[in-house]
Design goal:
The chain is mainly α. The protein is built from 21 helices and two strands. The termini are far apart.
Length: about 400
């Protein structure tokens, strides 16, 4: 590592908060100014070399090249270095470093500007602050403005669930339409569900939902046959859930197993639960735990939470003390289930020192993610606090 890179690591935590707060100022501008991308044939040659190294699995060597130019504010290098740190490619995941690189890169006019804004939105979705969902939405809007259409799906989800904004199904539908027009299969599936299960007095449209799900299945099968683990995972879930197509257990198992073997984290998680649900073959339970651990090591929060709960219940030969580690890791992702469990731990003083303030903080973080268990727990704790205040003795009388 160069001295310059080492200095960056030292001063980064100090500057991070200033960088994040300055983000808000960006959104007050009616238009975004941009810096032109510098052209340097030597740097571009290094970029090609780094891409080649990444393709053959030499992630650490590729990261060295990207960071060499990222510290000199080369936007493509910053974009890729941020991806490495956000996804843990060849390096321990560090969302703060990733966010810092993305925030600097997005100032430049370059081919990945829209995707950079999208990745910032995804990072702010995972952050702790009370206004992070609102900030995330602004980044998604910028990403869409810069022609990264994938952001439309996230905006639709925010408006449908009321994350960082009041729920608005009409706006959610308009963003789903944009994503569907771009042949985003996940958007087709989510939009189909919305059209079948409309809320707040809006109209259902089952015929359009049927067309959407049929189109999604055709596209997903094509991608799955081409080696897409994510597509196989989505197919497995559609056939498992049975709310959009007739439930088909054999098709669900087939696609989720394929997704797991293709490296899909969600596929590993879902296939593991299918193995665990099969009580006629208990010999597959350890195989399921293996798949959950594999997904967790790849950063899958739901798998971390599941492992924590199995430890907590002492299932499959797991010990209760091991639950804390998995919930703490799940909270870092963050995953709502882990946040809820940690809130309960600190509220009860189980495996940790009792700390009511921390319990409320974890539950609040879970609620901001839209996690219902955390929301219910937070409401219960606040009711307890309110009841406790009402029953406190009037100590002023004793001071008279």
């Amino acid at each position: 590592m160069t001295n310059k890179h080492s200095l960056f690591r030292i001063i980064f935590p100090v500057l991070l908060l200033a960088i994040i707060f300055s983000t808000v100022a960006y959104f007050s501008q009616s238009t975004w100014s941009s810096i032109n991308t510098p052209w340097d044939p030597m740097v571009n040659e290094d970029m090609n070399q780094a891409k080649t190294l990444l393709k053959i699995g030499k992630t650490k060597e590729a990261l060295v090249i990207y960071e060499r130019h990222a510290v000199n504010d080369h936007p493509v290098s910053m974009f890729y270095a941020a991806k490495f740190y956000s996804r843990g490619w060849g390096v321990r995941p560090n969302l703060n470093i990733a966010r810092g690189y993305y925030l600097k890169a997005v100032e430049y006019s370059f081919p990945y500007r829209g995707e950079t804004a999208y990745e910032l939105g995804r990072l702010f979705q995972r952050s702790k602050g009370a206004d992070c969902n609102t900030v995330a939405m602004e980044w998604f809007k910028n990403a869409l403005k810069w022609n990264y259409v994938k952001a439309a799906l996230q905006l639709a989800i925010h408006y449908e669930k009321g994350l960082g904004v009041e729920p608005d199904l009409d706006k959610a539908s308009s963003y789903y339409e944009i994503a569907v027009a771009a042949e985003n299969e996940q958007a087709m599936i989510k939009y189909a569900r919305l059209l079948i299960n409309r809320k707040y007095g809006t109209k259902q449209n089952p015929l359009k939902a049927e067309r959407l799900i049929n189109q999604a299945i055709i596209l997903l099968k094509r991608k799955a046959h081409s080696g897409s683990g994510n597509a196989a995972k989505q197919l497995g879930r559609v056939y498992r859930d049975g709310d959009l197509v007739p439930q088909d257990k054999s098709k669900s198992i087939k696609w989720l197993k394929q997704a797991a073997h293709l490296g899909s984290k969600g596929g590993m998680h879902d296939y593991a639960h299918i193995l665990l649900a099969d009580t006629t073959h208990p010999e597959n339970h350890q195989k399921a735990i293996h798949w959950l651990r594999s997904a967790a090591e790849l950063g899958h929060g739901a798998s971390m939470t599941a492992l924590g709960r199995f430890h907590l219940d002492e299932k499959y030969g797991l010990n209760r003390e091991g639950s804390l580690k998995w919930f703490e890791r799940g909270a870092e992702v963050p995953h709502g289930g882990s946040l809820e469990e940690l809130a309960r731990f600190y509220n009860r003083g189980f495996l940790v020192l009792k700390d009511r303030k921390k319990a409320i903080e974890f539950a609040e973080r879970g609620k901001r993610l839209g996690h219902s268990g955390s929301s219910k727990l937070l409401s219960a704790m606040r009711l307890e606090d309110a009841a406790s205040e009402l029953t406190l003795p009037d100590t002023a009388a004793f001071r008279r």
